[in-house]
Amino acid sequence: MLYDLRGEEHMSPIVGILYSAVKENSQRLHLITEGMSQKEVDYKGPNHNFNSTAQLIKHIMYVDLNWAYRMKGQPLSHSLIEQ
């Protein structure tokens, strides 16, 4: 997978960079987590006091979703924030 941070032709350079970063984050997370069991995804460390992979992915995707809406010039809807 090549990470060159180029957007699509119709995008301004800045929007293209941000779009590409969000897209590549998603692809990289998919590659890293492919084949993980539910137990592995939910694992919170030996004392259950760390963030699980699922929690970290949810956080990263929330941040990326905020970037996507910011690029569109729109606020994140309340229904997405609640999820």
Multimeric state: single chain
Q: What does the radius of gyration come to? A: 15 Å
Strand content: under 5%
The counted number of beta strands is 0
Task: Give the CA-based shape.
Answer: flat
Low-confidence stretches are none
Characterize the main sheet: none
Helical content (DSSP H or I, runs of 4+): 55-70%
SS-based structural class?
Answer: mainly alpha
Give the overall average pLDDT: 86
Amino-to-carboxy terminus distance: 30 Å
Number of helices: 4
Order of helices and strands: HHHH
Number of domains: 1
Protein name: Putative damage-inducible protein DinB
InterPro entries: DinB/YfiT-like (IPR034660)
Helix and strand arrangement:
Layout: H1 13-33, H2 38-42, H3 53-72, H4 78-82
Helix pairs in contact: 1-3
